[in-house]
Amino acid sequence: MDKLIFVYNAFSGSHNLVLDSVLKLVGSKSQPCKLCELTHGVFSEKKAWKEFRKKSDLEMDFLHLDEFRKKYASKFGYKFIFPIVLWEDEREMGVFISTEELQGLENVQELIELIQSRNRR
After folding, report:
1. DSSP code of 40?
2. What's residue 78's pLDDT?
3. Where are the domains of the chain?
4. Phi/psi at 32 (nearest 5 deg)?
5. Region 23-31: what's the mean pLDDT?
6. What is the C-alpha to C-alpha distance for residues 119 and 1, in angstroms, rounded to an integer?
7. More confident residue, 68 or 24
8. Which end of the chain, N or C, is less surrounded by CB atoms within 10 Å?
9. In the β-sheet with 84-88, what is the strand arrangement from edge to edge?
10. What pTM does this model have?
11. Nearest 5°: CA angle at 64, between 34 and 105?
């Protein structure tokens, strides 16, 4: 495994960022992204997540849905459900944490512990 790719079930761009923040403020669940919920508050990245990323020796890439599709469409198509955490090496890509597993996590600490435990294997 060369790196982890975190794919949010959200679109890139400042307009979408503002819309997502407003939806979080009013408590809307219209387009929930569990990965967004786990790693970000209303306006910024959660402190525990930011510290984990900075201290980790794992290479991590963070993409919105549209960015992932643009970058990987020709190589891997659209065979994944989002949000998701994938692993990638020079030849392959696979599921590291599935959408269903993300849905079962309660907080960012559980996400961090799951990443650490799977990285030790």
Report:
1. B
2. 63
3. 3-119
4. -70, 140
5. 50
6. 9
7. 68
8. C
9. 60-64, 3-8, 84-88, 93-97
10. 0.83
11. 15
pLDDT, greater one: 94 or 13: 94
CA 105 vs CA 8, 50, 93, 102, 112: distances in Å = 15, 18, 23, 5, 10
What's the 3-state SS for 94-115?
EEEECHHHHHHCCCHHHHHHHH
Residue 73 reports pLDDT greater than 90:
no
Nearest Cα neighbor of 94 from 113, 67, 109, 72 is 72
Q: Quick check: helix, strand or coil at residue 65? A: helix
In this predicted structure, what is the pLDDT of residue 27? 54
- Provide φ and ψ at 7, rounded to 5°: -115, 115
Which pair of tokens denotes residue 9?
Answer: 């079930």
- Residue 15's pLDDT is 44
